């Protein structure tokens, strides 16, 4: 009986130890997959797994703090939730870390639960293997198009060859006919006709001078029109897309990452000119993004090494040392190639269009282009920038193009300022154009006055 009770007690102890061990494994280790999401949402601004960014690398941080400072997960919980409070309590290891990293303040995360922190630490201890990248739909489409283009290209080649053979046959036939005519001209039957033929250009002109003068006048008109048309298109470079010193894809930044245009072009909304962003604007993100990890989107002919190399050009331009996480002071100016360049005699104010005319321009554009609508006013002039890998001039930017926009863009008269300021004009136009309900377009409020656009 005693032996049975002893055996029973040992069994209970073993089961208890097993349960407590299981609880420790499954309750404290956390979920690495959920930890990865939380890590990317909260930590990647300052940390990476395998290298120093603003803060130290976090791979194996649980074991590292145990070895370096003799602390456990509970200490990490306190540090992550409120490191300031932990340092203020006089914790030696917390203050050592603070001093080691140049007294850089770490953000506090009181919103993270104990389970969230366990999940993050599980991710840093045992990060899940990366998923196989999916091929971009655009690339797949490009591959399919390429496969279909092969037979089309072959067909085109055959058509060209047949056309060339037909032209060759026609030339041979013309040569044979010319030979027959030469022989006929040498016969006695045409001797009389040869005597009556006009033998000089002056004789031909004297005989048909009215026709000649008419042809010369037509040619002069055509030449004048051609020269005028050529002059009018000087400086119009629609489709111009130069290669820049640092490759920058608007499709990746504005399209894939949904970065707002005005984050980089901040003066476009409140200034006359939309400036080229400083390289320090790029560093706001690329201080922590040192390599290209968007394997789901790669342009044809470009690989990860290419994109990583372009990021290194940013570091070289700003004098940033990614290994030491500090600026060296040695900078290199970037000579960007300008794409849009208004003549000196033209006045154009970005703020006037982006702020005052924003909704009116978007509404007008979408009304004229129902199948190609826009959601940002910038796209009305610059095209769908968020789909461009290499920025190009999307419109003519001629005087006629601007005037046409002023004639068709309706002013928002429900705006309190416009409603009061143009009250008399609005009443006048209602009477003048009763069918249109007195609609006011930009040209009606001075949009065609020379002085508005020219100094």
Structure description:
A two-stranded antiparallel sheet has the order 1-2. A hairpin with a 4-residue loop joins β1 and β2. The chain is built from 22 helices and two strands. The chain is mainly alpha-helical and 455 residues long. The protein folds into five domains: 26 residues; 95 residues, Cytochrome c-like domain (Cytochrome Bc1 Complex, Chain D, domain 2); 33 residues; 78 residues, no CATH class; 104 residues, no CATH class. The protein is elongated, with a radius of gyration of 38 Å. The N and C termini lie far apart (112 Å).
Q: Helix fraction?
A: 55-70%
- Span of the ends, CA to CA: 112 Å
* Global mean pLDDT: 82
Which geometry do the CA atoms define? elongated
Largest sheet: number of strands, sense, barrel closure = 2 strands, antiparallel
DSSP summary: helix tally: 22
Low-confidence spans: 14-28, 136-150
**Helix and strand composition category:** mainly alpha
Radius of gyration: 38 Å
Strand percent estimate: under 5%
Number of strands: 2
Side-by-side strand order of the widest sheet: 1-2
Q: Secondary-structure element sequence?
A: HHHHHHHHHHHHHHHEEHHHHHHH
Question: How many structural domains?
Answer: 5
Signal peptide: 1-25
Biased composition (Polar residues): 140-150
Protein name: C-type cytochrome
Transmembrane segments: 159-176, 215-236
């Amino acid at each position: 009986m005693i032996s049975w009770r002893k055996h029973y007690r040992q069994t209970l102890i073993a089961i208890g130890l097993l349960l407590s061990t299981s609880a420790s494994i499954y309750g404290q280790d956390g979920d690495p997959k959920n930890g990865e999401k939380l890590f990317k949402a909260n930590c990647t601004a300052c940390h990476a797994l395998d290298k120093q960014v603003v803060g130290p690398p976090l791979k194996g941080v649980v074991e590292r703090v145990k070895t370096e400072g003799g602390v456990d997960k509970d200490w990490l919980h306190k540090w992550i939730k409120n490191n300031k409070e932990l340092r203020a309590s006089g914790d030696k290891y917390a203050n050592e870390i603070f001093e080691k990293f140049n007294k850089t303040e770490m953000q506090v995360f009181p919103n993270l639960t104990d389970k969230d922190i366990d999940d993050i630490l599980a991710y840093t201890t045992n990060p899940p293997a990366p998923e196989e990248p999916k091929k971009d739909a655009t690339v797949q489409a490009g591959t399919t198009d390429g496969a279909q283009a092969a037979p089309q290209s072959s067909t085109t080649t055959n058509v060209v060859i047949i056309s060339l053979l037909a032209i060759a046959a026609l030339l041979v036939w013309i040569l044979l006919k010319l030979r027959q005519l030469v022989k006929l001209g040498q016969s006695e039957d045409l001797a009389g006709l040869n005597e009556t033929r006009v033998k000089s250009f002056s004789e031909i002109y004297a005989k048909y001078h009215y026709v000649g003068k008419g042809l010369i006048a037509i040619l002069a008109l055509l030449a004048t029109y051609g020269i005028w048309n050529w002059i009018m298109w000087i400086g119009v470079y629609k489709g111009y897309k130069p290669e820049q010193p640092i490759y920058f894809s608007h499709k990746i930044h504005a399209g894939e990452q949904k970065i707002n245009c005005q984050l980089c072009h901040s003066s476009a909304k409140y200034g006359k000119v939309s400036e080229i962003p400083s390289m320090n604007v790029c560093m706001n993100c690329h201080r922590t993004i040192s390599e290209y990890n968007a394997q789901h989107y790669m342009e044809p002919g470009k690989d990860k090494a290419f994109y990583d190399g372009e990021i290194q050009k940013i570091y070289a331009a700003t004098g940033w040392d990614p290994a030491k996480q500090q600026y060296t002071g040695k900078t290199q100016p970037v000579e960007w190639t300008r794409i849009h360049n208004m003549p000196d005699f033209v006045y154009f104010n970005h703020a006037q269009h982006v702020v005052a005319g924003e909704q009116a321009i978007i509404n007008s554009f979408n009304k004229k282009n129902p199948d190609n609508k826009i959601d940002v006013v910038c796209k009305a002039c610059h095209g769908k920038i968020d789909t461009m890998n290499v920025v190009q001039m999307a419109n003519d930017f001629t005087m006629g193009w601007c005037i046409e926009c002023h004639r068709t863009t309706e002013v928002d008269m429900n705006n309190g300022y416009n409603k009061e300021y143009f009250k008399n004009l609005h009443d006048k136009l209602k009477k003048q154009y009763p069918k249109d309900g007195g609609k006011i377009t930009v040209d009606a409020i001075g949009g065609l006055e020379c002085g508005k656009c020219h100094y």
